[in-house]
Design brief:
By secondary structure, this protein is an alpha/beta fold. The chain has one domain: Aldolase class I (TIM Barrel), CATH 3.20.20. Helices cover 45% and strands 14% of the residues. The protein has an eight-stranded parallel barrel, surrounded by eight helices. Bound molecules: 1,3-dihydroxyacetonephosphate.
């Protein structure tokens, strides 16, 4: 494989000690929803101003190894006139790119989704690499409900993830393979563990079949957690133990890192979960973060679309980076939130 050495180096750099990934790859629709909540108009310019605030946060590279960009963003310049990918690279942050184009209904399977974007992907990956991207993300969505997920949904998504991962490695981009089991529903922790275990088994079976080099990829899973509307919410320690058990049973030890999504957990809970898992270590792989909402939410709320709030918003983002960085070594404490 042409990029074998580089892929391994990049994958390791993304999970370097004390660092994790910022997912800032919200589609136009998703960022529109987040902005609507705080009454900020959603335009290419407001997206640009907001992402500029995040990416120019002083010293954020202490805690952030890579940033996942959206297609719109990788084509934009910072407010200072530097292309965003270049601005990040100059800070020592690896630019990444979301390459799926979202989900649609899985045919003949009501309530289930399949991720789209394989057609033309080889050409798009080549362009993204020329624009500076060195890793890529593809998100598959698995929903838990009565009679679902079906094996049709799990295997179709595992196949698409693996086709994408193979194309990404061919193009010299580290695939971040994201099978997200949604938190929506009233299922309990055990049920989530059963489903997530089956999904990850299927994903790694297919990745192997497609020839993906496991040393040159990262897994971005959801945690094994109680459904949002389950009457009994599992404790932080129970979630940490169930998640680590799920991963030990399914993820080969040669995978360099596992970078969790936050999936709707509050910022502080997402940090506490990661911390509890790392306290249980050492593990075969690095356990780190690739959070979207859990890294951004406090900063987004403070920013509120106003230039004068930039420094305060950046301070909030820096703080979340610092807390999650501490969670990489199990040294996060709730007291850090008040300092
Ligand atoms: P959340 O951490 O907000 O779930 O976002 C991560 C992500 O990249 C989802 O695709």
């Amino acid at each position: 494989m042409d990029y074998e050495h580089e892929l391994i180096e990049t994958a390791r750099a993304l999970v370097a000690p004390g660092k994790g990934i910022l997912a800032a790859d919200e589609s136009v629709g998703t960022i529109g929803k987040r902005f609507a909540k705080i009454g900020v108009p959603s335009t290419a310019e407001t997206h640009r101003t907001y992402r500029d605030m995040l990416f120019t946060t002083p010293d954020i590279e202490e805690f952030i190894s890579g940033v996942i960009l959206y297609d719109e963003t990788i084509r934009q310049e910072s407010l200072g006139g530097t292309p965003f990918a270049q601005l990040l690279a100059e800070k020592g942050i690896i630019p990444g790119i979301k390459v799926d184009i979202g989900t649609s209904e899985l045919a003949l399977h009501p309530g289930e989704k399949i991720t789209q974007g394989l057609d033309g992907l080889r050409e798009r990956l080549e362009e993204y690499r020329s624009m500076g991207a060195r890793f890529a993300k593809w998100r598959a969505v698995i929903t838990i409900g009565p009679g679902i997920p079906t094996s049709a949904c799990v295997s179709a998504n595992a196949h698409a993830l693996s086709r994408y991962a193979a194309l990404a490695q061919e193009a010299g981009l580290v695939p971040v393979v994201e099978p997200e089991v949604l938190m929506d529903g009233d299922h309990d922790l055990d049920h989530c563990e059963t489903v997530t275990t089956g999904v990850l088994r299927s994903v790694f079976r297919e990745l192997t079949r497609q020839g993906v080099m496991l040393e040159g990829m990262l897994l971005k899973p959801s945690m094994t957690i109680s459904g949002k509307s389950c009457a009994h919410q599992a404790s932080v320690q129970d979630v940490a133990e169930a998640t680590v058990r799920t991963l030990l049973r399914t993820v080969p030890a040669v995978v360099p890192g596992i970078v969790f999504l936050s999936g709707g957990q509050s910022s502080e809970v997402a940090t506490a979960h990661l911390n509890a898992m790392n306290k249980m270590g050492p593990h075969p792989w690095e356990l780190s973060y690739s959070y979207g909402r859990a890294l951004q939410e406090p900063a987004l709320t403070i920013w509120h679309g106003e230039q004068e709030n930039t420094s305060a918003a950046q301070a909030a983002f820096y703080h979340r980076g610092k807390c999650n960085s501490a969670a990489r070594t199990g040294s996060y404490t709730p007291e850090m939130e008040r300092s």
